[in-house]
Design goal:
Blueprint lengths: L21 E5 H15 L5 E5 L6 H9 L4 E4 L2 H9 L4 E7 L3 H10 L4 E6 L2 H14 L3 E6 L13 H11 L4 E7 L11 H24 L6 E4 L5 H7 L4 E2 L9 H4 L14 E12 L2 E4 L14 E2 L5 E6 L4 E5 L11 E5 L3 H5 L4 E6 L6 E7 L8
Helix pairs in contact: 3-4, 4-5
Length: 378
């Protein structure tokens, strides 16, 4: 994380005094989201391994664990390092890690915390084993299967069994189970279609578990599932650990999904606070929040509670607002809240979360949390 002499806000001061653009958490909504997840799985034999790639912040990870998560998952060795350094004791890199340097770092990390990693290649298993042997540690290893995302993962069934068998032959590695995450299903808009995608994924899991059982290989954990589908995974009975991440924040893209039971409706808790920096023409205003403040890969941000005002075009340091004729008049220096299109890459653009208590209108700054895994891409 880059060092800055100036912080975006001061604890105890009103939201109106936060410098912009700033990444702001509505702490009340954030905590309600934690509670909503817990209520949704109450009474079920399901572990939550919260996904830290969403927030990249150990302070948030520790709050997720305090709320009941067994640990966190992340996507990179650098993210895992940031989590362990921040006090997290159980981290799964729910991704493949390839390269001697990265694997050595991951193995050394296992001297300080419980660490897991995913594989989908026999040669990578040899490399992971060598790193673990050199560090004098034992690593949990999950075989990743492709359950429909067409990303990483071997084919379900016999290909996965072959990797699990090879893991059993490596004393430095422990076969911990299956990674079975259908990422693209999270943003299927229709509840019916999303549920169908997860049922297909469950078929792949069942096929693989049956093949493992025929070989006498125990599969302790099947992990996967995201904020947009995790209750569907739970209902199939094929998963016993889920990996929701975006539920703590939500974003404009998730808001376009259809939401209904059994999925709870999580609240927007993450905002980019921005300032009107120019009023160049009637019906148009400029914000100080552009591409370097909010990700647009999943669509443009929306303007929070501002009917008739649309965020229509970003450049590096500017965001163009188009105003309907009947929209409220804006003034220079006015602050507006944006709901990011995609929370994960937006978090990666900022150094701090400014945590506000008491609402987004009249709240005050309660804390500043560093985004210590920002940019940890290797």
């Amino acid at each position: 994380m880059a060092a800055h002499l100036h912080l975006p806000a001061r604890v105890g001061r009103p939201i109106a005094e936060i410098d912009t653009p700033a990444l702001v958490i509505d702490l009340d909504a954030f905590e309600r989201n934690l509670d909503a997840l817990n209520r949704s799985i109450a009474g079920r034999d399901i572990r939550v391994r919260a996904h830290a790639k969403t927030h990249k912040c150990p302070e948030i990870a520790l709050r997720q664990i305090a709320a009941g998560a067994v640990g966190v998952c992340c996507q990179k060795a650098g993210e895992a390092e940031a989590m362990v350094e921040g006090g997290v004791g159980d981290v799964l890199v729910s991704n493949e890690v390839v390269g001697g340097s990265k694997l050595a770092r991951l193995a050394r990390l296992a001297r300080r915390a419980k660490v897991g990693v995913c594989v989908d290649d026999a040669g990578n298993i040899d490399a992971v084993a060598a790193a673990a042997r050199s560090a004098g540690v034992t690593l949990d290893v999950y075989v990743e299967i492709d359950v429909g995302a067409r990303r990483c993962g071997v084919a379900p069934g016999d290909a996965a069994v072959a990797l699990a068998r090879k893991l059993r032959g490596s004393p430095e590695l422990r076969f911990a189970g299956l990674q079975a995450y259908h990422g693209s299903a999270q943003h299927i808009r229709s509840m019916t279609d999303r549920r169908a995608a997860i049922e297909n994924a469950a078929g792949a899991v069942r096929q693989t578990r049956a093949a493992l059982e025929r070989e006498g290989i125990r599969c302790p954990i099947v992990t996967g599932a995201g904020s947009g589908s995790y209750m569907f995974e739970i209902e199939t009975g094929a998963w016993n650990e889920v990996q929701p991440g975006s539920y703590v924040f939500m974003d404009a893209d998730y808001a376009r999904n259809e939401w209904a039971a059994p999925l709870p409706r999580f609240e927007h808790a993450l905002f980019v606070l921005s300032t009107v920096m120019s009023l160049p023409a009637p019906g148009r205003a400029m914000l100080d929040a552009g591409l370097k403040a909010s990700s647009v890969d999943s669509g443009l941000p929306s303007v929070w509670h501002s009917p008739g005002i649309r965020y229509t075009r970003p450049s590096d340091e500017h965001g163009v607002l188009e105003l309907d004729a009947d929209a409220p008049m804006l003034h220079l220096g006015q602050k507006l809240l944006l709901v990011p299109g995609h929370c994960d890459p937006t978090a990666n653009l900022h150094d701090w979360y400014v945590c506000v208590r008491g609402g987004m209108d009249q709240g005050t700054v309660e804390a500043l949390w560093p985004i210590t895994a920002r940019g940890a891409g290797y």
